[in-house]
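Run folding on both entries below.
>entry_1
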Amino acid sequence: MPRLPALLSAAFPARTPDGQRILQAIAAVEGDVPTADELAVELGYDNRHQMARAMMRAGLPPLEHVSGWAMLLGWTARSEQDGITLCELAAEYKRDPAVCYRLTKRLTGKVWTEVVKLGTGWLVATVRQRYGYAPLTAAQVPTRRRSGDNERPLVKT
């Protein structure tokens, strides 16, 4: 999913190179991190606690928060681009659709159909607001991409 690294970086602005490297690793697995220990070792940390401290220094929330939002951002971007439903995505990723719907509701407080209508730009803004990051400027707002559509900003300027 080529857009996910950019969306994740826009949602979670990491203050350190270590934080950016962690975000890139989470984006590479589309948020589906096997275990914190495995990711930590893969990134060269001694253990998950050392990685958690690096995430804190980078101004990032805990791994489980970032990975959940990464999955949701990836699903939403894919749905925008290909018009695919969450149920179809769940089957593709070998996940229970009910778990995907519950994750969406838990993170956003909204049902999947509302999230898809609001789009990835809204998700990025929601993450930034929830974790206390500064709002994006109009130039930083991700654009919505659907097959057949030209790029257009998600918010009116």
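>entry_2
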Amino acid sequence: MQNENYLWDIMKTMIKYLRQELKMSQQELGDKVGVTRQTINALENGRYNPSLFLAYDITQVFNKKMFKGDREKYFVMEEIFIFDDDYYR
């Protein structure tokens, strides 16, 4: 069995950093994407692996708030949810 922090070793996220840049609480982000504050906290701390749909929704919230519709500047999910490729080798 892998240790309890294995998800953090595999995936890191920019959620906390981006959320704080926007002065958005965990509760506010959770409300916008339909999950609890606890889920956002677990994502930020690597204790939860998001579904593709949740990762997409979070990415879209950040894009709309940060870039106000300028799609040329939009993040792709891989810039917010960063996986360690070495884990799978």
